[in-house]
Amino acid sequence: MAPRFSELDFPRPTRERLSLRFGQVSTLLDQNRLHEALGLFDTIRRDYESWSAMTDLRFSQDTTSATNRAERDYADSLTPHVTAFEVAIKRRLLDAPDQQAVRAALTPHTLELWRTDITTFDSRIADALEEEARLSGEYTALIASARLSIDGRTVNLSGLAPYAESTDRAVREQAERVRWAFFADNAPQLDTLFDRLVHVRADMAAALGYDAYTSLAYRRMRRVDYGPREVARFREDVRTHVVPLVQQILERRRATMGWECVYSWDEPLIDPHGNPRPIGGHDMLVAQAQVMFDRMGGDLGGFYRQMREGGFLDLRNRDGKAGGGFCTSFPTVGMPFIFANFNGTQHDINVFTHEMGHAYQNWKSRNLPAVDLLWPTMDAAEINSMALEFLTWPHMDLMVAPGEAERFRQMHLIGSLSFLPYGVCVDHFQHEIYARPDMSPAGRHELWREMERRYLPWRDYGGIAHPSAGGRWQAQGHIYRSPFYYIDYALALCCALQFWQRSRTDYDRALRDYVALCERGGSRPFTGLVLEAGLTSPFQPGALA
């Protein structure tokens, strides 16, 4: 029986306690007690990850709390020390005289991940890692601090979404102007934050002997089966096959609506009749989701009931709460947690089913033998989340207003296709940034405009100064907090769309294949999991076409 979230209490680690526990692992290895050493090593890491996840979650739930911020800062200061202990033990095991015993005790993929991990850390970059985490937290708090006035109300950035999707074009334009006024007002601070992050990361790469941060970043993402060359080819495939299609869709929408052109504030209105809305507010959606997952069969309904009744959901938007949505987990108890910001738009359904996909995968693979395998690398993890978005399609009548399920499905598909050019735009931007870390803030803004012209040639901000000058990227938190992550969404979407295609001819098979993929967790690298699921790799020529 899973515990309730309110009952979770993970001991606060200290450097001294961590040193003692990791020292016990070394002692067991000295005594040739390999299996006991590996068991303790795994337990220590699960304990620390559970506490760290809770610390990050509480900060995200209330970024204004001095207590939460202090505890987050404390965790950031501990992380380099924990990494140093982990890397030392991984090195020792990878260099152990009895490699046959090590290979018998650990999966080949685990060993490959460890070989990658040991190349991403040295005690010389411990202070830089702490500074990187601190700056990332500063960005999160700054974005969460937004207080925007519109229609006589004060909202945060998440609360602006309903206005951005209004059928009234003037309201959409106003929402766009209000949004970018906040970023324009904070542009100097945002530029300074990012400049410091870029240089901290470039310095870490240099200290570890890399020619540029990009090489280190790919290893930090644990990408063991592809590199920048394959990603560049995928970006070009998107440019060739998807960009013209999205341009056609937008032109058809322009003609249908009778607009003189498509401005940036028109793009969120995907359906000319108005984007379909959720059937109700927070409580209604949470209850309807139970019916939906029960209908889908298997153990999805039972798992969701555990999440719901155990308090492992935080979906309401509120002041001081970090923006966006994510899924985290507590590996000592085998339960994930979903964080989101419902705002009354169709995005509530998308983000909920997306994060539910992450949660279900983590729960299905909770009994895999090592903490390294509980999550896939993020490229593969995003298949689990995005595929569930599509696999819930037959039950959308439960989640949207009566008669709007088909319009929701069409909007979801168009939105997915439209995301691909933006996803690769963000990725290409980051590759160029870290190839030239000394680029000026003005140069970075011009670079973003160049990327938009390449991948989003239709984008027109209607003269709004900040995004027209190349400041749009500052609203994409991944660029600050999780460099090179964003392409994972595009790669995974190419795979999730294949699950959608499969479900149209054999839904039961598609769902079985999906559950099997979730059960595999992180037992294989991205391309290995794609192959085992019977999917075509995004890197294979013709996959997007």
From TrEMBL:
It holds the Pfam family Peptidase_M3. Binds 1 zinc ion. GO terms for molecular function: metal ion binding; metalloendopeptidase activity. The keyword Zinc applies. Residues 163-266, 306-539 form the Peptidase M3A/M3B catalytic domain. Its cofactor is Zn(2+). Keywords: Hydrolase, Metal-binding, Metalloprotease, Protease, Zinc. GO terms for biological process: peptide metabolic process; proteolysis. PANTHER family: OLIGOENDOPEPTIDASE F (PTHR11804:SF28), PROTEASE M3 THIMET OLIGOPEPTIDASE-RELATED (PTHR11804). Belongs to the peptidase M3 family. This is Peptidase family M3.
